[in-house]
Amino acid sequence: MWRIIFLTIHNWLENQSLQLQHNSLLRLMQKLQFQAGGQEKLLIENQLLVINKDLVIQQQTYWVSICFAGFALIMLLGCFVIYNQRRKCYLLLQTLREAKEIEIQEAIMKGEEKERKRISRDLHDGIGGLLSAVRMHFGALRYQNSYLKYDYEFDHALEILDDAILEVRKTSHNLMPDKLNQHGLVSALEGFCQKVSHSSMLLITFCTVGKIQRFHSNYELSIYRVVQELITNIIKHSKATEAIVQLTQHNDCLTITVEDNGVGFKSISQKQNGIGLTNLKERITSLNGQLTLTTIPDSGTTAYMEFNISFMQSPDLQVAI
């Protein structure tokens, strides 16, 4: 197609050159025609006819080339328009597909949150209430039977029951943290890190960089679960004594870094094959995020997460935490 356009330009230039040569030659022949005799005059007239025919042929060739070039340009513009329309349709479909995936994920998260609230309420009000009632009956039983005041087995049973009540309350709270609903992600994570530091051998430093906004409750809860799972893994497997949890927000990007000084692990690929980490990566991906793990044996592990939060921000919650 470009070759046709090039040839058209070339033919036009050639036609212009031939026309100039023809005009110059025509003037010369006409001048000679006036000066020549009968036979020579006839010969010159024949030569003029040949030159005129050549010029007509050149002009016809030129206009045919112009038509081909115009057709080629129209075809080129048509192809460009079709390509542009197809690209617009593809981008539109891609946007609709992503929006549908986000909508499905939001529906799943809402369902999960609703189920967690129900389980949390059932644990706290149902099982927790029953265990508290049992504890009261045990207390009344001891009051009615004085010999139980010094019974070791009875005391031990009460301790186990108290531990069970405490675990039910803790599980209920972890399923749906009150601080997360009331004060947001930053406050809930800070409180969680403080609790872990007070109740275990792991000292966690929590910090934020930049202004962390409030997000939809579904996303705040999911991110809270991700950090909670990472901290739990550190306590269970890393033998770490210190850890850092850092949140940073810049424009539409939220990054979370969880780092420890534990034993690390030898192979990233081996670690990533674990069921727990696979589920964690799937949760992060569903939040439109990415997870990067780096580790050095005997020097600790760093989990770096990056989230696109453009669709996570709650329009009615714009106050920084």
From TrEMBL:
Q: What CDD domains does this protein's entry cite?
A: HATPase_UhpB-NarQ-NarX-like (cd16917)
Q: Give the transmembrane ranges.
A: 62-83
UniProt entry keywords in alphabetical sequence: ATP-binding, Kinase, Membrane, Nucleotide-binding, Phosphoprotein, Transferase, Transmembrane, Transmembrane helix, Two-component regulatory system
Q: Which Gene3D superfamilies match?
A: 1.20.5.1930, Histidine kinase-like ATPase, C-terminal domain
GO MF annotations in UniProt:
ATP binding; phosphorelay sensor kinase activity; protein dimerization activity
Q: Which Pfam families match?
A: HATPase_c (PF02518), HisKA_3 (PF07730)
InterPro entries (alphabetical): HATPase_C_sf, HATPase_dom, His_kinase_dom, Sensor_HK_TwoCompSys, Sig_transdc_His_kin_sub3_dim/P
Q: Which reaction does it catalyse?
A: ATP + protein L-histidine = ADP + protein N-phospho-L-histidine
Q: Does the keyword section mention Transmembrane helix?
A: yes
Positions of the Histidine kinase domain: 223-311
For this protein, what is the EC number?
2.7.13.3
Q: Name one GO cellular component term.
A: membrane
Entry's PANTHER family? Answer: NITRATE/NITRITE SENSOR PROTEIN NARX-RELATED, NITRATE_NITRITE SENSOR PROTEIN NARQ
Protein name per the record: histidine kinase
Taxonomy of origin reads:
Bacteria, Pseudomonadati, Bacteroidota, Chitinophagia, Chitinophagales
